[in-house]
């Protein structure tokens, strides 16, 4: 009889050991899944609260710089062509606002006024204006690299 009891106890222990291991593994797996889901939720919350608004601001700043560069390049090409061809007078169309244009005659094109920012305009010669535009383009390019 002792043999049967010890054999039964051995079987009971083995059965309980095999029964409890999958349960513990399943519980720990569920805890791990819940932990990962919580980490994912926190990361998504961080992305939504912090990174997305920062991205929107950076894209807006980048677009503003691109707009400034878009204005500078045609101006530089125009000045270079004026200087190359030796143009002294000019007839052009000027935008008065709201897409209303007016014809303008410029009798002396040796000096031009350039918007340097914050509403200030400086009178430059063609070569000075080209130099100013190249400096401004390089600064804008550096600023873009920092973004």
Automatic annotation (TrEMBL):
**Name of the protein in its database record:** Protein UXT
GO cellular component labels: mediator complex
| UniProt-listed Pfam families | Prefoldin
**For this UniProt entry, which segments traverse the membrane?**
none
Which molecular function terms from Gene Ontology are attached?
A: transcription coregulator activity
Record GO biological process: positive regulation of transcription by RNA polymerase II; protein folding; response to cold
Under PANTHER family, the record lists: MEDIATOR OF RNA POLYMERASE II TRANSCRIPTION SUBUNIT 10, PROTEIN UXT
Source species, please?
Answer: Dendrobium chrysotoxum (Orchid)
